[in-house]
Amino acid sequence: MKITIGSDHGAVELKEEVKKVLAEFDVEIKDVGTFGKESVDYPDIAEKVCADVVSGAADRGIVLCGTGLGISIAANKIKGIRCALCSDVYSAKMSREHNNANVLAMGGRVMGFGPAGEIVRAWMTTEFAGGRHQRRIDKMMALESK
Ligand code: RB5
């Protein structure tokens, strides 16, 4: 699986921790930055990560900012993206099983590394359930054209 990951300056350390957890899986990781403490704008990072997901260059994406809020909202503005902001393992599982989330968001200033790692593991190992959930996904995605 190919995963593109990116963060703003509020989650650079969390990004490194998430990459360590991703290395437990058979994944090819592309990191689009940022790499330092200098302030950057989270919509630019969301755009880079989500471009890979939409084009198929990545199977899924992970976006991180201080709270996870701004970058998840930005990601969900992009057609084809279903970005789930998760701060607990159950939501991370459900975001895959029910919502077929193709992008995971978390906040570097609100999450410990341990819980974030468990969220990533749950998100990586949970498959979309399909069935009645596919009908809801179809309706959700149709909202993009209304
Ligand atoms: C950046 O200071 C901060 O606003 C950003 O990381 C994020 O928390 C926005 O939602």
Explain the overall architecture.
The protein has 146 residues and is an alpha/beta fold. Helix content is 45%, strand content 16%. It has 6 helices and 5 strands, in the order βαβαβαβαβαα. The chain has helices at residues 12-22, 42-55, 69-75, 89-97, 113-125, 132-142; strands spanning 2-7, 28-31, 60-65, 83-85, 103-107. A 5-stranded parallel β-sheet has the order 2-1-3-5-4, with helices on both faces. α1 (12-22) links the parallel β1 and β2. The termini are far apart. D-ribose is lined by residues 8, 10, 42, 65-67, 69-70.
Comma- or semicolon-separated keywords:
146 residues, 5 strands, 16% strand, five-stranded parallel beta sheet, globular, alpha/beta, 6 helices
Tell me briefly what this model is.
With 146 residues, this protein is of the alpha/beta class. It has helices spanning 12-22, 42-55, 69-75, 89-97, 113-125, 132-142, and strands at residues 2-7, 28-31, 60-65, 83-85, 103-107. β1, α1 (12-22) and β2 (28-31) form a beta-alpha-beta unit.
Specify Rg, calculated over alpha carbons.
14 Å
Q: Which compounds are bound in this model?
A: D-ribose
Structural class: alpha/beta
Percent of residues in beta strands = 15-25%
Shape: globular
Major beta sheet, strand line-up: 2-1-3-5-4
Count all strands and give the number.
5
Q: What's the helical proportion of residues?
A: 40-55%
Mean pLDDT: 98
Largest sheet: 5 strands, parallel
